[in-house]
Amino acid sequence: MVGLDNAGKTTTLYHLHMGEMVEQINVDSVKFEVWDLGGQAALRLSWQAYYPATDAVIVVVDSTDRGRIGIARQELKNIIDNPSLKGACILIFANKQDLPNAMSVQELSEALDLVGIKDHNWHVQASCAVSGQGLEEGVQWIARHVKAQNAPLFSLPSLT
């Protein structure tokens, strides 16, 4: 789970695991190992150390932080362009939707230039990490896509 500082990553992870600060979440029989990575500029360089063998990335974006949406867009581009994440699905939590000045999902999608993403399945989920609104729907989207990605490419008929 990545995102700029103060985007709401820690609160999101807290709510996804019913109040416990842990690193493993089970959703629809899919086990997630979640790393809450710091979003300060100096720490963002370390994100790529966690990318190998990653099936999905959760990006938490502060929907009220219009002044830093360009930085969020660039960090998302860095994630998408990283060869270690080839084929990984991308969930973007449009966080802080409870606040009156929050960008809508449509506005945030345009600001992040998501239509340009061609090599990854992606989804933007409106969310409020404080109340938990939208979080379960987001991780269920990831679970469906990770299951589909890891499904066998073919199956043999039964011989019985």
TrEMBL record:
GO biological process per UniProt: establishment of cell polarity; vesicle-mediated transport
Keyword GTP-binding attached: yes
Amino acids binding Mg(2+): T10
Binding site for GTP: G3, L4, D5, N6, A7, G8, K9, T10, G39, N95, K96, Q97, D98
Cited SUPFAM superfamilies: P-loop containing nucleoside triphosphate hydrolases
InterPro entries given in the database record: P-loop_NTPase (IPR027417), Small_GTP-bd (IPR005225), Small_GTPase_ARF (IPR024156), Small_GTPase_ARF/SAR (IPR006689)
Keyword tags: ER-Golgi transport, GTP-binding, Lipoprotein, Magnesium, Metal-binding, Myristate, Nucleotide-binding, Transport
SMART domains reported in the protein's UniProt record: ARF, SAR
UniProt-recorded Gene Ontology molecular function terms: GTP binding; GTPase activity; metal ion binding
Protein's UniProt keywords contain Signal: no
Cross-referenced Pfam families: Arf (PF00025)
Similarity annotation: Belongs to the small GTPase superfamily. Arf family.
Protein name listed in UniProt: Uncharacterized protein
Originating species: Prototheca wickerhamii
